Amino acid sequence: MISSRATAVAHPNLALIKYWGKRDSERVLPYTGSLSLTLDVFPTRTSVRLDPSLSQDSFSLNDAEVEGGALERVRAFLDLVRERAGQRTHARVVSQNSVPTGAGLASSASGFAALATAASAAYGLPTDTASLSRLARRGSGSACRSIIEDLAVWHPGVGHDEEADATSFAEKVPGPRLAMVIAVVSAAQKSVSSRIAMKQTAETSPFFDGWVSSTTKDLEDMQSALAAEDYTRVGELTESNALRMHAAINGNRPVIRYLSPTSVALFDAAGQLRGEGLEVYATADAGPNVAVLCREADLEQTRAAFAVRFPELELIAARSGPGAYLTEDA
Ligand code: 2P0
């Protein structure tokens, strides 16, 4: 049924096997598959209301009107939705996002997952998870994984162009109960966006080919480890894949180095805690914040262990979260 207004909620995800590099920028098709945990913290709530009186889409985020590049990205996304729906009516988009924007905590993932879900319902597009995931991907690659609850694998898609577009989406995979402690090293906007940095890695880093081939293998191994509920192997692959992504990024020109001395100290602390019998593993996205992977049963102990070692840092405990869902209008 077509309703002219819909509201959706989505949560961020953090990748255990990272997405870094697009083989098709227009369709947001990655060089490799990736795999993530959707979290139960920092939801984004977005409503889309069709309004025939509007000559352009408008977008407010956390009660402030958005202009510039972020607005253009939302408009381009809604243009795609309208093209698919055969409609021309513009929309008012109102979003509340509780993740610190640009802090390397994947605000674009929850944002475009919520927008894809609300816009699909408002414009009458299919709302099954595969269709929503394919659509969310066009807004931001990692958003396709936030459509899915818990553990999600994003398939890179088969072939090129339309065939690849149709086959690149995320779906749920089984695995053990996982959780994360996110150490907020800096809540500031990152210096270079993922979108720009990953393009530079593909174009300039001599390590990019190695990143692609080893991540393809890491993803296969990760899916086997998750299916076998082999937590140790899951953790080892998670930490190693993250460091390989940063190694590839460190080969960029002009230079980018996302990890700070505190980030590196957090990786060291994870290794020390493993030595003391608490099995935790570190990962980091395109910024200095570090997420520490643990068994869900160890979440409070993990947070406490990092609070003792890093009393100055904000530590966020996150469990497995839900996929994107439609909700009542606010
Ligand atoms: C990931 N990241 O797998 C990786 C790890 C950051 C580091 O997906 O250009 O915001 O919108 O497709 O999804 C961040 O990239 O990039 C990201 P676009 P996106 O989570």
Describe the protein's topology.
Blueprint: E1 5-10, E2 13-17, E3 22-24, E4 29-30, E5 34-38, E6 44-50, E7 58-61, E8 64-65, H1 68-85, E9 91-97, H2 107-123, H3 129-139, H4 143-146, E10 151-154, H5 161-167, E11 170-172, E12 178-184, H6 194-204, H7 208-227, H8 231-249, H9 261-275, E13 281-283, E14 290-295, H10 299-309, E15 314-319, E16 325-327
Parallel strand pairs: 7-9
Antiparallel strand pairs: 1-6, 1-16, 2-5, 3-4, 5-10, 6-9, 7-8, 10-11, 12-14, 12-15, 13-14
Helix pairs in contact: 1-2, 2-3, 7-8
Task: From the structure above, extract its key features.
binds ligand 2P0; Alpha-Beta Plaits; Ribosomal Protein S5, domain 2; alpha+beta; 22% strand; six-stranded mixed beta sheet; 330 residues; single chain
Largest sheet entry:
6 strands, mixed
Number of domains: 2
Low-confidence stretches: none
Percent range of helical residues: 40-55%
Morphology: globular
What is the CATH T-level topology of the largest domain?
Answer: Ribosomal Protein S5, domain 2
Question: What is the second-level CATH architecture of the largest domain?
Answer: 2-Layer Sandwich
Ends distance = 20 Å
Strand order of the largest sheet: 8-7-9-6-1-16
Order of helices and strands: EEEEEEEEHEHHHEHEEHHHHEEHEE
Could you explain how this protein is built, in words?
It is globular and about 65 Å long. With about 325 residues, it is an alpha+beta fold. The chain has two domains: about 5-175, Ribosomal Protein S5, domain 2; about 180-320, GHMP kinase, C-terminal domain (Alpha-Beta Plaits, 2-Layer Sandwich). A six-stranded mixed β-sheet has the order 8-7-9-6-1-16. Strands 2-5-10-11 form a four-stranded antiparallel β-sheet. It is built from ten helices and 16 strands. It has helices at about 70-85, 105-125, 130-140, 145, 160-165, 195-205, 210-225, 230-250, 260-275, 300-310; strands at about 5-10, 15, 20-25, 30, 35-40, 45-50, 60, 65, 90-95, 150-155, 170, 180-185, 280-285, 290-295, 315-320, 325. Helix 1 (about 70-85) packs parallel to helix 2, helix 2 (about 105-125) packs across helix 3 (about 130-140) and helix 7 packs antiparallel against helix 8.
